[in-house]
Fold this protein.
Amino acid sequence: MALDRVRAALRAAGLVAEILQFPAGTRTAEDAARALGTTVAQIVKSLVFLADGEPVLALVSGANRVDERKLAAACGARRVIKADAATVRAITGFAIGGVPPVGHLRPLRAFLDRDLMAHPVVYAAAGTPTAVFPVAPAELQRACRADPVDLRQE
């Protein structure tokens, strides 16, 4: 089960986080912010991109769009494109709308949007479109071994 895989990955990463469930759904950053009573900027979007064909994970503030040129520069890639839904599921084992930052089928090189670091707590998907977990951005960065970079599209 997706939630169990995320719980196990959180434990393995040394994170103590309570998974919160919202039957109305948290599929989009806006849905999650509304359910939690927080800002969209505190929602973590876990997005999979292909950098010269290799999958990478971008952990991005819900308020931001990814500048693919900035991500390409951070990866050292010539070209970065957003992965389609089938590719995301094949790489992570999760469907878009519930992709967590941890617990993927294989380890992914990760990049963390620096804007997330401005918040004491952020909320990331927990494997389903109805579940999220709170985490300090520095702990998320550590758990995902993510490089903090400016990913925001201007």
